[in-house]
Amino acid sequence: MTDAAAAITLLIVDDHPVVRDGLRGMFESAPGFRVLGEASNGVEAVSLAAALDPDVILMDLRMPGGGGVDAIRDLTRTGARARVLVLTTYDTDSDTLPAIEAGATGYLLKDAPRDELFAAVRAAAEGRTVLSPAVASRLVSAVRAPRAPGNDTLSAREREVLALVAKGTSNREVARELFISEATVKTHLTHLYAKLGVKDRAAAVATAYERGILG
Predict the structure, then answer these.
(1) Which pTM does this prediction carry?
(2) What does DSSP say about strands 83-88 and 130-131: parallel, antiparallel, or unpaired?
(3) Which fold has domain 8-144?
(4) H-helix segments, the chain
(5) Which stretches make up the HTH luxR-type domain (predicted)?
(6) Are 133 and 164 in contact (CB under 8 A)?
(7) Which regions of the chain are under pLDDT 50?
(8) Contact 26, 17 (CB under 8 A)
(9) Is the CB of residue 92 less than 8 Å from the CB of residue 79?
(10) What pLDDT is attached to residue 140?
């Protein structure tokens, strides 16, 4: 097997050309990696992933023309082989949790040392989860946080489900819109009912408007 054949292939996704150039130069100067292409937004990333079939996609999150989380969802939905390693400057709950839920294999911040990034890409290529310490801490806190009825924050996905429900969308239509199963929609509804302290869709919508979650 040649070195080229053994190399981990990459797709770099970032809306800043300077960042893409820097990452390409970093990986092309190191043995064991091969950059197949670059994309400037999530939509382009999904298209290139289908055409190039990389092992790992380095994915930024906030990009004009198509964000990273939506791209990760599309890649997961279409059964793409590539592992997605998020590489971003954002480590807030509103960024990290949706990305992981959407199917990202790992999540690193752009200030990660060079060797840590290389190790993370190798791990992602093997299907292992890689999280920066700050992100890992946030995820652990989110998992361990007490979930008292009516006194908890809805997840990004639960907010999406609730917003569609508020428009009169059926469970089947919600599932189709968000590319998830009806069973998953029902699970999200059950969770958000518990968090809002309600028992049905109408009460959930009314309570969400009252608390400023919707509208």
Answers:
(1) 0.66
(2) unpaired
(3) Rossmann fold (3.40.50)
(4) 3-6, 17-28, 42-52, 68-77, 93-102, 114-125, 133-144, 156-166, 171-178, 182-196, 201-210
(5) 147-212
(6) no
(7) 1-2, 146-151
(8) no
(9) no
(10) 59
The β-bridge partners of 33 are 8
Residues composing the chain: 215
| Rounded-to-integer distance, Cα 73 and Cα 180, Å | 10
CA angle in degrees (0–180, nearest 5) for 92-127-118: 70
| Alpha carbons 82 and 196: distance in angstroms, whole number | 37
Q: 172-182: per-residue pLDDT in tens?
A: 999 999 999 99
The tens digit of pLDDT for each residue in 7-44 reads: 999 999 999 999 999 999 999 999 999 999 999 999 99
The arrangement of strands across the sheet holding 130-131 comes to 33-39, 8-13, 56-59, 83-88, 106-109, 130-131
Calpha distance 95→67 (Å, rounded): 11
Q: How is the chain split into domains, by residue range?
A: 8-144, 156-211
Task: State the amino acid at position 161 in one-letter form.
Answer: V
Residue type, 71: A
Identify the CATH number of the domain defined by range 156-211.
Answer: 1.10.10.10
